[in-house]
């Protein structure tokens, strides 16, 4: 009897944790939202959304309405590989360095969409250079797209006040 109640409690926790994640509808809204308004303010809010996900902002190009997050190393399984002494990161074979390019793209007169595109390099032991992995590359670890989705959702949460209703 005691064993059944423990498993019931574990199942309840698993269901509760799963319920906290974004729904496919929320993610679809984040990826397809169209924005109108002060584009400089929308870009600033997008940068704040990246900060909400603990990404540091790297290069910002206000003229092209884009920014890139600072690259971070992850293990092949998706665990963050933190900087150690002197700012060096110990990486493993197949570790990846990931940054995200966030762009506001004008689709219509003063209407914009926001895209989040991963920029990924993979470390291969013995190779003198890291190999860049395109977003469609079959070698791209699945967690990279998951992190891009999380970033898109965080940005949407910050910018949704400028989103216009679908036609």
Give the SSE layout.
Blueprint: H1 2-20, H2 24-32, E1 34-36, H3 39-52, E2 57-61, E3 66-69, E4 72-74, E5 80-81, E6 96-108, E7 111-122, E8 131-133, H4 142-159, E9 163-164
Antiparallel strand pairs: 1-7, 1-9, 2-3, 3-6, 4-5, 4-6, 6-7, 7-8
Helix pairs in contact: 2-4, 3-4
Could you name the ranges where pLDDT drops below 50 across 5 or more consecutive residues? 7-19
User: What is the class in the CATH system?
Assistant: Alpha Beta
CATH topology: Alpha-D-Glucose-1,6-Bisphosphate, Chain A, domain 4
| Order of helical and strand elements | HHEHEEEEEEEHE
Proportion in helices? 25-40%
Give the strand tally: 9
CATH architecture: 2-Layer Sandwich
Radius of gyration: 19 Å
Give the key terms.
167 residues, alpha+beta, Alpha-D-Glucose-1,6-Bisphosphate, Chain A, domain 4, nine-stranded antiparallel beta sheet, 4 helices, 28% strand, elongated
Q: Would you write up a description of this structure?
A:
The protein has 167 residues and is an alpha+beta fold. It has a single domain, classed as Alpha-D-Glucose-1,6-Bisphosphate, Chain A, domain 4 (2-Layer Sandwich). Helices cover 36% and strands 28% of the residues. Strands 1, 2, 3, 4, 5, 6, 7, 8 and 9 form a 9-stranded antiparallel β-sheet that branches. A hairpin with an 8-residue loop joins strand 7 and strand 8. The radius of gyration is 19 Å and the shape is elongated. It starts with a helix and ends with a strand.
Short description:
With 167 residues, the chain is an alpha+beta fold. Helix content is 36%, strand content 28%. Helix 2 crosses helix 4 (142-159).
């Amino acid at each position: 009897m005691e064993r059944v109640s423990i498993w019931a409690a574990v199942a309840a926790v698993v269901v509760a944790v799963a319920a906290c994640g974004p729904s496919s509808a929320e993610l679809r809204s984040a990826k397809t939202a169209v924005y109108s308004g002060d584009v400089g303010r929308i870009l600033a809010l997008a940068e704040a959304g990246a900060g909400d996900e603990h990404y540091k902002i790297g290069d910002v190009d206000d003229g092209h309405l884009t920014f890139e997050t600072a690259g971070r190393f992850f293990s092949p399984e998706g665990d963050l590989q933190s900087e150690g002494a002197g700012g060096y990161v110990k990486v493993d074979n197949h570790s990846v360095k990931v940054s995200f390019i966030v762009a506001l793209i004008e689709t219509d007169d003063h209407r914009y969409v926001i895209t989040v595109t991963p920029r990924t390099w993979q470390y291969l032991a013995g190779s003198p250079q890291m190999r860049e992995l395109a977003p469609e590359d079959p070698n791209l670890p699945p967690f990279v797209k998951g992190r891009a989705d999380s970033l898109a959702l965080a940005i949407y949460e910050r910018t949704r006040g400028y989103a216009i209703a679908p036609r």
